[in-house]
Specification:
heterodimer, A: mainly alpha, 3-stranded mixed sheet, B: mainly alpha
């Protein structure tokens, strides 16, 4: 073993067990090398995640145009697309749109409007939601922002899953049609933590059935589960809010995620639970570049 | 029928009769089982890992208890307890293993 003394002289000393030192160094180096790739893969890197996820779906569905992914099952299954084309002659969300426009234009008791709460008067901004709010350190969904607007203007919050809320979200989505998702994750550890929680939620197996969001919406996307065609994770929220035949009414992203929870036989979380907001943040970020097509319709 | 065979049948029947009271649950046992199941389910809810069938079994146990059907109550409570424990176990296991499923 070589060491340098206080005078700068190099000396050799005999180790009592030279073989063991060499072995230990080799083992330590090997462990470090083995751990390095795993650590890189686990690092929070939303942009690398997004590129990998999008590349996966573009390779899985080479004939589907990027802009079509927002149409979910209708983009990846020809038979369903035909049915959808027929349905869209009289879109079932039109009643909600009418209701939403009427509500949007109606002033609050204090004389202010929804438009006063949003950038660009709420026009063409849906593709930037959910957003990370630095003041609260939390993710805010579009529905959360609409309810905040109401509360700040002295109105009662709405049910964030359906009804008038879905109608208002439909109005905002309609004004963003064709605009690609542009979700920002600021350089703030809390924003990255929210993204990570959303990613964890998406990939975690839940409920008595032990399935994750990814179990249905990654590799099996486009395949049948009973009568349904599984939608790809890419662009999965681009059509929100949706009129879903299964519900017989409109629903927001949170309603859909909550329904997914029930389908795994997990007890759904509260509508404004952090986990739901964060998974919406994660999924929307994954869809950056995919145009908004909402409001939409689903079986 | 031979006498020894008759004796065997009577013995077996007697043993079955003797074991029946042991299978029946008391009110205290049913209540204790439900309390244990509720405690386990609270842990699952806190971990955001509760399952719908657990809640269903808890409701069934509570209804049976109210109807003084101790056996039925204990059976449902034991099922709820097992499900609640499984759900917490799943949540704990997924805390790290979700990373193995991440698409890279």
């Amino acid at each position: 073993m070589v060491y340098r003394n206080a005078n700068g002289e190099t000396r050799m000393i005999k180790s009592s067990c030279p073989g063991r030192w060499a072995l230990a160094r080799t083992v330590v180096c090997a462990l470090l090398l083995a751990a390095a790739p795993a650590k890189a893969a686990d690092k929070t890197d939303p942009e690398t995640d997004r590129k990998a996820l999008q590349a996966f779906f573009f390779a899985k569905f080479p004939k589907v145009d990027k802009a079509e992914f927002g149409n979910g099952p209708y983009a990846v299954n020809e038979e369903m697309r035909k049915q959808w084309t027929d349905i869209m002659q009289f879109p079932p969300y039109e009643i909600a749109l009418d209701e939403g426009h009427a509500e949007w234009d109606k002033p609050f008791a204090n004389g202010k409007h929804y438009a006063d709460c949003f950038d660009n008067k709420g026009e063409g901004i849906r593709q930037t939601y959910p957003r990370f709010i630095a003041e609260t350190g939390q993710v805010e969904t579009l529905e959360g922002a609409i309810n905040r607007c109401r509360v700040e203007n002295g109105e009662k919050p709405l049910d964030p899953m359906t009804g008038l809320m879905a109608s208002l979200a439909a109005v905002m989505s309609e004004s963003s049609r064709g605009k690609p998702f542009a979700i920002a994750i600021p350089d703030d550890p809390r924003a990255l933590a929210a993204y990570d929680r959303g990613k964890e939620f998406f990939y975690s197996r839940k409920g008595q059935l032990g399935v994750s969001c990814a179990s249905c919406h990654m590799s099996p996307a486009g395949e049948r589960m009973r009568g349904d065609i599984l939608a790809p994770a890419l662009g999965i929220l681009a059509a929100m809010p949706i009129y879903r035949s299964d519900w017989g009414s409109m629903g927001t992203s949170i309603r859909r995620i909550s329904t997914c929870s029930s389908q795994t036989r997990a007890v759904p979380l509260k509508a404004d639970d952090e986990d739901y907001r964060d998974v919406e943040y994660f999924l929307s970020y994954m869809s950056n570049g995919i145009p908004v097509v909402g409001p939409g319709t689903r079986p | 029928m031979k006498r020894s065979m008759k004796r065997s049948i009577l013995l077996a029947a007697g043993l079955v009769m003797l074991s029946l009271p042991a299978l029946a649950a008391t009110q205290e046992e049913a209540e204790a089982a439900l309390a244990a199941a509720r405690a386990a389910e609270s842990e699952a809810v806190a971990a955001k890992a509760a399952w719908i069938p657990t809640e269903t079994a808890l409701i069934k146990a509570a209804k049976a208890l109210a109807a003084e059907k101790w056996d039925e109550a204990k059976l449902a409570a034991d099922e709820a307890l097992a499900l609640a424990r499984l759900s917490v176990e799943q949540a704990n296991e997924q805390k790290t293993s979700w990373r193995n499923a991440v698409f890279r």
